[in-house]
TrEMBL record:
Organism: Pluvianellus socialis (Magellanic plover)
Record's keyword terms, sorted: Calcium, Cell adhesion, Cell membrane, Cleavage on pair of basic residues, Glycoprotein, Membrane, Metal-binding, Repeat, Signal, Transmembrane, Transmembrane helix
Role according to the record: Cadherins are calcium-dependent cell adhesion proteins.
Protein name: Cadherin-4
Main location: membrane
Domain Cadherin intervals: 4-86, 87-201, 263-310, 311-418, 417-525
Amino acid sequence: QIRSDKDKEIHIRYSITGVGADQPPMEVFSIDPVSGRMYVTRPMDREERASYHLRAHAVDMNGNKVENPIDLYIYVIDMNDNRPEFINQVYNGSVDEGSKPGTYVMTVTANDADDSTTANGMVRYRIVTQTPQSPSQNMFTINSETGDIVTVAAGLDREKVQQYIVIVQATDMEGNLNYGLSNTATAIITVTDVNDNPPEFTTSTVSTNSGARTHSVLVIPGSEGGARWDTPRHAPAWAHSLPHGLLSAPGSRDTMQHFAAAVDYEMNRAFMLTVMVSNQAPLASGIQMSFQSTAGVTISVTDVNEAPYFPTNHKLIRLEEGVPTGTVLTTFSAVDPDRFMQQAVRYSKLSDPANWLNINATNGQITTAAVLDRESDYIKNNVYEATFLAADNGIPPASGTGTLQIYLIDINDNAPELLPKEAQICEKPNLNVINITAADADIDPNVGPFVFELPSVPSAVRKNWTITRLNGDYAQLSLRIMYLEAGVYDVPIIVTDSGNPPLYNTSVIKVKVCPCDENGDCTTIGAVAAAGLGTGAIIAILICIIILLTMVLLFVVWMKRREKERHTKQLLIDPEDDVRDNILKYDEEGGGEEDQDYDLSQLQQPETMDHVLNKTPGVRRVDERPIGAEPQYPIRPVIPHPGDIGDFINEGLRAADNDPTAPPYDSLLVFDYEGSGSTAGSVSSLNSSSSGDQDYDYLNDWGPRFKKLADMYGGGEED
């Protein structure tokens, strides 16, 4: 808490500044402006920042300084919140076999981020385990403060144990395992060999293939009696009285010697060698034996078919691009090293990405199969690369490859292209301009500086537009006139490069001219107008859309009204659907046809039966059931006889034909009762005889419904 002794006289407000208050890290500390109590706002980390320097201020209510600022130093007290961390998780060290106790091996180091002046950061080391525990479980010890590992017991023998794995633990709080934090690392200790075994080897006569490099020549065997061998570090072999560089001496104990260079049957068919092997290091004390051994070796070389090779590989040639097809570029021939074999070499393409080249199969002459283009995607850094194969006809056949690199010199064969292709400008000048440039697929000196020009035809181009040169690669396109109507204009521009001879290209840039705001940006209405549609055209389009929508709405309303009328007049048939002259459908239920063209009242049935009882004999309505005795139909026997079936059917048919009460009562149509009031008599009074005393030809004029009657009673001849 900070406090001014003037707080009894006036009201004082306190504040703090500095790192941790109003400087990063921000608001680590806060202060009560009235009481002056300071608080920490979040957990502190000493490893992040160990101290803070703040300044406290006291002012009155008007912000006037009451006291001079005072310095506040805040120190973060360390807590043991960090484990020791080893620099490496695995340490590698070595020690010679037979070393005396106390021999230094290696040092392991662990760091603790806590305060090293307190126990929180004081690290102590100890060995936890040792593997293997031979010949003793404590072969090594470690300095608890420095981390130095030394031998503590004798008996290190590489031939028995070649490596030890030691687990080392680092603990802070000065190594207190109850309160300290710990971490572990692995120390790998390799027991190195000392020279206590002399070398010995046997000789043999061997043969090798011509051109061989890795063929085995010598073997260094173990001595008799199963003697142990030292490691290669103490037993490297070296060749003596040999052709320079003929054999390599890898120096491994039981491995084989190899050729250091390829042998050639055509050069040497056999080698007579004297080989000596020795130790570079002297034998260990107490060993009374010779430190070297010699042997004679005969090496025979066997001839084999060797692959042809290209003497110059990779071969680089330079020429200009665009050479015509069939041009001879070079001869890429191979050499067959088999001088004693009469073999022919044939050439072929192995890789030709663009298929630009041909090779003569006999002599390796390279010619062009197409025009070479430096701007092709197959060219990398102006170089085109193709691979060819040379194969002999030996047994077995052998082949070699060669790479031909063609460096293409650029010629001016690409005209420049204008960039950009589209742009936007205000309809009034001096508001903005269009920066233009050009792109050329060629390279220097066949590119810039470029010349930008406006063509003289059409004349409106130079009248409306002007070009201002900025530098060799850029220019500005702007309006020449004070106002240009909004729209999209195709402005042709001639771009010429600096090649020899120069090439030019007339490119068209689409410029959208539009009204702009005060910032030089196209307005929304202006952008639409610039697209080629004026205000009148936009209004006309909107009116057409409204009319189209209105027509669609009226059509929908008409369809709904028509559907409603169809539901209301389900029994009525539209004139266009009149079926009077068509085939009738009788599989629909309903009240019958409503025909307004005929008076059906004449067919109405009277309410009484007097007209039936009082009518003259022989005249009756065909739609009434006749009054009279009904015929008797035969009774089917209970047990019918097969011979009686035909008689039974015939009698029933005869009775039905003579029954006047059986439907259809000699009529083609039965009409339902239509009500009383008919002024016409029954149509049954018509005599159906065809005596010819009445003319029925008028039935032909009544339409197709009376065609049947016209055919029956009309003027047609009887059959």
